[in-house]
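ok so for the tutorial part 2 we go from a plain amino acid sequence to predicted structure tokens. step 1 is just haveing the sequence, like this:
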Amino acid sequence: MRVIVPISVIVCCKPFLVNEQPLTVVVNHFKSKGSGCLEDWLSFEESKDPADMQGKCNEFRVSAATVLGEAVKQIEGDVLVIGDLNAYGMEDPLLVLTDYDAKHSQRDIVTASHTTLGANTFEEQGRIIDKGYGLINLNTKFHGQGTYSYSYNGELGNLDHALGNTSVAARVIAVEDWHINASESNLFEYGTKYTGDLVKSENAFSASDHDPVIIALEYPDSSDDGSSGGSLGIFSLVLLGLLGFRRGSKNNSHS
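step 2 — the prediction. this is what the tokens look like for a chain of 255 residues:
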């Protein structure tokens, strides 16, 4: 008997006041593509090509996206959603969090069945998603679809994202992937499986298998009375690929 207990982590939420303006940062780590969920074993044998090549546990990540979307839509003020969502920009979980509309889609996006939220049942049966939650992919807004934060089998893409509601999107002055990890050789990673006794460098490179995303936000100075020409405060956030500074291996499948 195979027991499958996949987990997605949503750390919701950390509120800040930036120059007296509310900003809530929601940090996430969605289930990876590498190991299977119930949806991948419905025929009692593992699916070899799950979810239109979106990897294993795609429906489970969609479920996580709906939980996240429902939570953040009730938050007042600026909302910034960051983390390793283990989904590329045009895959189902990201579509659900952003601008998806079922009327313009040729296929259904569905949640996973038999899911729990904490100790409680979340959904016994999967359901079809009709509409996305309207968050804005900030990296795509600034740079289009040519960005990346992860390398897998020689292909580059974004698994790590910074999404925002409309109010925080208006405050973003810069978004950049900091390419210190994804393109680095396995010979320089901190794990010893592929590096043996090679000396590890004490610098930022190969600190993880995901690149950080840096977001700069601009807020009006709360002390500005209108006579100074409008001084501005800058609040910068660094999103690390796996919720924190993790020394990882790029040979893990979409971790």
